[in-house]
Amino acid sequence: MNMISFSQNGETPFQQLLGFNKDILEKWISLEECFYSSKTFSVELKEEVRRRLAFNNGCEYCKAKGAPSKAILNPRIQMAARFADFSSKETHIGDREMGALKEVFSEREISELLAFICFTSASQRFGALLNLLPSCQI
């Protein structure tokens, strides 16, 4: 059971939990659309990051969309998945970790990847904190 009721704003259960402030909801959706429409990273990379974060952040609603991959061959997806896991445990990136990132990604890509990780984590933590479940009905 959700910790709060659903608002009348939004199309998904997540959006309706966030939708009590329509301005925040609209900007949140806009930023999410910006990340997912960006061509910087493949759909597969973003989905693997989303899945890993869902399990790290404990969002049951997000976990229901699929588990992280067990074997990743693409080095860019491997590194992004590694940093999704890293971000769940650490708050600072050291020189060694940043060096590893720079071997695979440009600074522009690193900025976008870390912003995507933080935004996705915030979304999932919001859902987890409010006990959003995959079976939620709106």
UniProtKB/TrEMBL annotation:
Gene3D superfamilies with a match to the protein in the record: AhpD-like
This protein's source sits in the domain of life called: Bacteria
Q: Which organism is this protein's natural source?
A: Aminipila butyrica
Taxonomic path = Bacteria, Bacillati, Bacillota, Clostridia, Peptostreptococcales
Please give the name of this protein: Carboxymuconolactone decarboxylase family protein
